[in-house]
Amino acid sequence: MEKVYPLQVDGYTMHGVLTVVEEQAPLVIFSHGYNGTEKHLAGFCQFLAQYGINSYRFDFLGGSVNDSSEMKTEDMTILTEMRDLLAVVDYFEQAPFVDAKQLYLFGASMGGLVSSLVAEARPTVAGLFLMFPAFSVARDWQQRYKTKADIPERLVFWGMPLGYRFFDVLLDFTLEDEIGTYQGPVYIIHGDEDAVVSHAVTDWVKPLYRQLDVKILPGEGHGFSKAGEEETGEALLQFIQQH
Questions:
Q1: pLDDT at residue 67 greater than cutoff 90
Q2: What gap in Å lies between CA 108 and CA 93, rounded to an integer?
Q3: Every domain of the chain and the residues it spans
Q4: Which of 29, 30, 57, 181 could be cross-linked to 38 through a Cys-Cys bond (beta carbons 3.0 to 4.6 Å apart)?
Q5: What is the pTM of this model?
Q6: What percent of the chain has pLDDT over 70?
Q7: Which 3 state secondary structure label does DSSP give 212?
Q8: How far apart are alpha carbons 134 and 220 in whole angstroms?
Q9: How far apart are the first and last CA of the chain?
Q10: Do the Cβ atoms of 99 and 24 come closer than 8 Å?
Q11: CATH 3.40.50.1820, applies to 2-242
Q12: What is the pLDDT of residue 70?
């Protein structure tokens, strides 16, 4: 069964799609990247369904110019995306058809950063799978805007309008101070030709995770080829089956 399954978050209706093939089976919550939507991750959900694994994918509120939410992209920050994902996790941990001990997070790019932060707040998450996670987003913007006075009220970046608060939140953000308490298994898959977020940023988190596996795909960038996505799907399936 796959159906549109919206959730109410902070007064907004957040679009989502739920795929259930078996009750009390593992559930994977998928978080898309910057200016993306749940549609970009639908293939992974359909792949997992073949193996009896349930999934939920959703659009972050204000997370894309193409999403269906009522919130403006100018109001989105990594904190609002954390709020959204926390609401999803908390909802499905209580859902009668979900085994709360088998709830996994999958995050792509900025959705990977947000998923890693949410795992810190919800340590009962069974596993964390990250596809080219944008661990460097704060440091990248800190190089451009060093003080609050430098931050613009509005900036269109990669086709999406961002507001002052997006950058203000990142100004004092230090990744190493925000993650490192989650003790569950973590898997990171990254391309060695990623020009947006270098796979080298994974070195920042290696000392912070107790159960970490890293896979670097040759020839892949920020956004995998069909072959890279297939390899990611297989790695995700093995990750869930293992844990």
A1: no
A2: 22
A3: 2-242
A4: 57
A5: 0.97
A6: 100
A7: strand
A8: 15
A9: 24
A10: yes
A11: yes
A12: 78
